[in-house]
User: Which sequence fits this backbone?
C-alpha cells in the first residue's frame, strides 16, 4: 500500500451492502443488493483498495459471506482487505485462498494473543488486526461486547507480535458523519511505531477530514476507510483521493 490510500467500505449483511450506525445491528441502512457490482463500481471510480466487513460473520463468530466475497474480489480486480468472524486458522486460509489480499482479525486478536505472533510470522503483511474501540476500550464480537483492554495496549501488543497493519475504528464516530477521532488516530500511530501501518476508520465525512488526518504528519498513517459519507453523497472518492495526495 503506497502513501495514503482511501479505502471505500462495503459492509455485508444478509447478502446486501449496508451501513450500521455505531455498529448497531438494529440500526441498519441498505445501500445496495449486489455487492460484486458495488465492488466493481468502486474500482471503476479509481479505488486502489477495498475494505470489506462480513457483519453477519462478526455477529455469528464465523464467516458467512464467503461466496459473495469471492465474487467481489473477482469483480473488483483490486486488492481487498476483509474481516468479520475470523476466529479459526481455517477461516483465514479460506478467505485468503479466495483472493482476499489481507485478512483482518478482531475478536481473536484480543482473545488469543498467544497465537498472534505465530499468525503474523506465517502470513506477514497479509494479516491485519482491527481494533474497534469506544471510549478507548476495545469492543469485540461485532461490537456487542466491550472489554477491559485499552485500544492503545492492544495495538502495542499486536505490533510487538509482528502485525504490520492496524485498522483503528472509533465506534462512537462510526456512521455518524461527524468527523474522525483525530487524536486517537495520532496516538495509535505513535504507540505502534514505524514498523506498523495504521489505517483510520470511523466518522470520516469530508475531504477536510482527510486533510486533518494528513496534517498529523504520521509517517505510518497509511490510509483511511470511508463508508457512509460516500454512500450518502457527502463527498466523492475523487475528492478524498485529492485530499489524500
Assistant:
Amino acid at each position: 500500500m503506497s502513501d495514503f490510500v482511501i479505502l471505500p467500505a462495503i459492509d455485508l449483511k444478509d447478502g446486501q451492502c449496508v451501513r450500521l450506525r455505531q455498529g448497531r445491528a438494529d440500526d441498519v441502512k441498505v445501500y445496495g443488493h449486489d455487492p460484486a457490482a458495488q465492488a466493481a463500481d468502486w474500482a471503476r471510480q479509481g479505488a486502489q483498495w477495498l475494505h470489506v466487513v462480513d457483519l453477519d460473520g462478526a455477529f455469528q463468530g464465523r464467516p458467512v459471506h464467503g461466496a459473495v466475497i469471492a465474487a467481489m474480489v473477482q469483480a473488483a480486480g483490486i486488492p481487498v482487505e476483509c474481516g468479520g468472524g475470523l476466529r479459526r486458522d481455517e477461516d483465514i486460509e479460506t478467505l485468503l485462498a479466495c483472493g482476499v489480499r489481507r485478512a483482518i482479525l478482531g475478536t481473536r486478536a484480543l482473545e488469543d494473543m498467544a497465537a498472534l505472533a505465530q499468525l503474523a510470522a506465517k502470513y506477514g503483511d497479509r494479516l491485519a488486526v482491527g481494533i474497534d474501540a469506544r471510549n478507548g476500550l476495545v469492543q469485540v464480537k461485532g461490537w456487542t461486547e466491550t472489554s477491559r483492554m485499552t485500544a492503545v495496549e492492544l495495538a502495542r501488543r499486536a505490533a510487538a507480535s509482528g502485525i504490520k497493519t492496524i485498522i483503528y475504528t472509533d465506534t462512537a464516530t462510526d456512521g455518524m458523519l461527524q468527523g474522525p477521532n483525530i487524536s486517537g488516530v495520532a496516538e495509535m500511530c505513535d504507540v505502534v511505531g514505524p514498523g506498523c501501518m495504521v489505517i483510520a476508520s470511523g466518522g470520516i465525512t469530508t475531504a477536510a477530514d482527510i486533510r486533518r488526518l494528513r496534517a498529523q504528519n504520521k509517517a505510518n498513517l497509511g490510509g483511511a476507510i470511508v463508508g457512509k459519507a460516500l454512500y450518502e453523497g457527502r463527498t466523492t472518492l475523487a475528492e478524498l483521493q485529492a485530499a489524500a495526495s
Notes: Residues 66-76 form the longest helix (11 residues).
